[in-house]
Specification:
mainly alpha; 13 helices; 0% strand
């Protein structure tokens, strides 16, 4: 009598071996794709960090070694005269205060103006809403070279020539053009039922703005404020034209003043760029969590 082999029947719902193999192959392909993306991201990060590494190397290098060994050499000694020369020649504490003062006020005023404009356009549903939003977008794309002459002339007429308030007003309007375009798109999708319920409860427009709309868009406003601060901090052309005296100028103008027509002190310039970068990096690190929360606010309900 021969023995028979009983093959168990596959259970219901159990994947067949080919299906299981296909799933494993797909998982391996996804894992390999992730490593490729990670490698590309690492290469891009190194390319972005390379200029900063070169700047640090040349900031602590003597002019003689820079001329002899080139910008890619490693400093043989810690040369701090470049930092000291930049600090004293440009009166860096005054320039730092000017940049912080202008950038902070532009960030606050620009965000506030963007919120008010977007509230009127997105929630108030004014007539010609799309045309107004398009106008703000076009205004944000205009080059500063096309605006500088009328802006300078108007500043002289109102007595704000060589005044930091002229720069603050100009950049508040310029930055709020982008902020209005962004926030009006966000507030345009605001739930009408929530606003109608607040109106039925007797809430006016100001109360709806500050007690209902503002808490919801607060993360986005935080992101706008950070962007406005950094963008204004890096501005060069308009402050160069509007601020003509040394005690009103900002850090980017101080960096440009280190370069002459026929010569440039490379170690001092790199040291100045490094010192000027530190406040912006500290600002970004302090408000990094605010930026992250604002960017991911609408990703998860």
């Amino acid at each position: 009598m021969t023995a028979t082999t009983v093959v168990p029947a596959p259970t219901a719902g159990a994947p067949t071996p080919p299906v299981r193999e296909r799933k494993q192959d797909a998982r391996h392909k996804r894992g390999a794709g992730r490593w490729v993306v990670l490698a590309l991201a690492a290469v891009v990060a190194l390319l972005m960090l390379a200029p900063f590494v070169i700047m640090v190397l040349n900031a602590f290098k003597s002019p003689a070694q820079y001329s002899q060994d080139g910008p890619l050499s490693i400093p043989t000694e810690l040369y701090l005269d470049g930092v000291q020369n930049f600090w004293t020649r440009t009166n860096f504490p005054q320039k730092l205060w000017n940049s912080v003062f202008i950038s902070a006020l532009v960030a606050v005023f620009g965000t506030l103006l963007s919120l008010l404009n977007a509230y009127a356009i997105g929630v108030g549903r004014i007539k010609g809403r799309m045309w107004i939003v398009t106008l703000f977008l076009v205004a944000n794309m205009l080059p500063q070279e096309a605006l500088i002459y009328p802006l300078f002339d108007m500043a002289q007429q109102v007595g704000l020539s060589n005044s930091q308030w002229s720069v603050i007003i100009i950049f508040t309007v310029i930055q709020s053009a982008f902020g209005t375009y962004l926030l009006s798109s966000v507030l345009g999708t605001f739930p009408p039922a929530l606003l109608e319920a607040a109106a039925l409860d007797g809430a006016g427009r100001w109360r709806i703005l500050w007690q209902i709309v503002y808490p919801i868009v607060k993360p986005t406003l935080g992101v706008l404020m950070i962007f406005f601060f950094i963008w204004t901090w890096n501005e060069f052309f308009i402050p160069l034209v509007m601020l003509t005296t040394n005690d009103t100028q900002t850090i980017p103008i101080a960096l440009a003043s280190l370069q002459g027509d026929r010569m440039m002190d490379a170690p001092t310039t790199n040291a100045g760029a490094l010192v000027s970068l530190v406040p912006a990096v500290i600002f970004f690190l302090v408000f990094q969590r605010t930026l992250t929360r604002g960017v991911t606010a609408g990703a998860v309900k």
